[in-house]
Amino acid sequence: MLYFNQMVEVKRRFVAISRILGAKKGKPRTLSEDTDNEFMWLQIRKIIELVTYSAIASDLERYSALRALSNGKVEDDQKATKILNRLSGINPRFMPAPLGNMAQQPDGSKHFEGLEEAKQATLHRFTGIFNEASKHLHTPNPYGADAQALEQTQRVGSRAHVIEALEYLKTALWSHFKMGLEFKSGDDPKALDEFKGCYIVNFNKPEETGMVSMMLAERKDAFP
Predict the structure, then answer these.
(1) Are 86 and 63 in contact (CB under 8 A)?
(2) Nearest in space to 59 (alpha carbons), one of 190, 221, 222
(3) Are strands 97-98 and 110-112 parallel, antiparallel or unpaired?
(4) What distance in Å separates the CA atoms of residue 102 and residue 124, rounded to the nearest whole number?
(5) Of the four, 35, 86, 141, 192, which is 20 to 30 A from 209 by CA?
(6) CB 195 within 8 A of CB 93
(7) Cα dihedral sign for 118, 124, 127, 133?
(8) Which of the residues in the chain have pLDDT under 70?
(9) Which of 47, 33, 56, 31 is nearest to 165 (CA)?
(10) Cα first-last separation, the chain
(11) What's the confidence (pLDDT) of residue 224?
């Protein structure tokens, strides 16, 4: 399944970043701390892209119909921020949502409490991290005014910012669910419908492995 495979790749990127940060005595894993940071920003950007493409999966028919309205195709879409914005227009729950702690209810059912808004995966935060990662991956034009000073300023805060982005993404994604909406061929892709089910994902422990578990939950209408 596409969503599962994408999540395996997300976790692999988390592991790659952890190995850089866990280098003994702060010894660079690559050429220098600056190139280590660039490598980690690359993984952060890839994580955003992997989550973005996977977010289409639960609403593939709906998203495909949306793209067809402007003669577009899913397979031609490339820019993560554009895809995220399109998804926000067809499913208000398009982002993966952290499960949080599980609480036993009086009736025996189990309920996931979720996390506070600051720890949620949001369009605004994902877009901001994607754009920041992109800045760290591009070489500035050396002919621009104060180019070297600006690059040095960016490098100074790079490690702290990449760690902040990493911790946010791990909190939002490590144990999460992703919901999709019902959609029938010919319907308006922007017209909302009932949710049809969700993927429930756990990246598991230990962190150093690529092991990911996933379940598919389907909506069941209550009997009258």
Answers:
(1) yes
(2) 190
(3) unpaired
(4) 27
(5) 35
(6) yes
(7) negative
(8) 108-111, 219-224
(9) 47
(10) 34
(11) 44
DSSP 75: G
Which three-class secondary structure state does DSSP give residue 199? strand
Euclidean distance between CA atoms 125 and 68, whole angstroms? 28
Taking CA atoms, 194 is separated from 37, 93, 95, in Å, by 43, 11, 16
pLDDT score for 11: 96
Look at residue 106 in the predicted model and tell me its pLDDT: 73
Q: Are residues 37 and 136 in contact, defined by beta-carbon separation less than 8 angstroms?
A: yes
Q: Is the peptide bond before 96 cis (omega within 30 degrees of 0)?
A: no
Q: How many residues does the chain have?
A: 224
Fill in the amino acid letter for 7: M
pLDDT given at position 114: 85
Instruction: Tell me if 198 sits within 8 A of 178, measured CB to CB.
Output: yes
